[in-house]
Every structure is written in structure tokens, then in C-alpha cells.
Design brief:
About 70% of the residues lie in helices and about 0% in strands. By secondary structure, it is mainly α. It has one domain. It starts with 6 loop residues before the first helix and ends in a 12-residue tail after the last helix.
Amino acid sequence: MNRTRLPHADTAKGLMIIMIVFGHFIERLLDWNATPKMPLLSLMYLIHIPTFVFLSGCFFTPRHWQHKIKRLALLYVLFQLLYTVCNRVTPPAFNFTIIPI
């Protein structure tokens, strides 16, 4: 089956992914409870995840979904194990901490 991609949908999903990364970065860097940043973070979290899920659901095709879920679950477990091992092995000075401003 020959499928064509919609550039606008791909761009919108890409922007939502960038917003996710940026939101996590700002949250860690500036602290979630910092009063001036809270409205910005709240707005970002209100918009980017639901929009990404909606756009992904619009273009979902049910082919090979069991294989995809198994592959994603395996990757999740592997990366979670890697994160846990690295977090336990590295000294506390190398662990990521919130920078007070």
C-alpha cells in the first residue's frame, strides 16, 4: 500500500515533541513551583501532549500493532534498566539536580 505523508501533520507532531523536551528542560532547570514559570509550564502541558496524541491517533493504522507494542515495551525496559544502572553507579555529584535560581 502506497501511503503519502502529510507534511503539516508531521511538522505539528515534531513541534509537539520539541515542546515536550523543552517543557521537561524548563521544569528541571527552573523548578516547577517557581511562580513566574508555572503558567507557561501549565499551558505547555495542557496543549502539547493531547495534541500529539490526537494527531498520532488520526493517522494510526492497525497493521502490525502487536509487534510494535512488544518492540516499544522491550525498548522501554532496556532503557529503564540502563537508566537505573547509570543512576546507581555514578556518584551523586554526577546525577542531575535542579539548579536553584
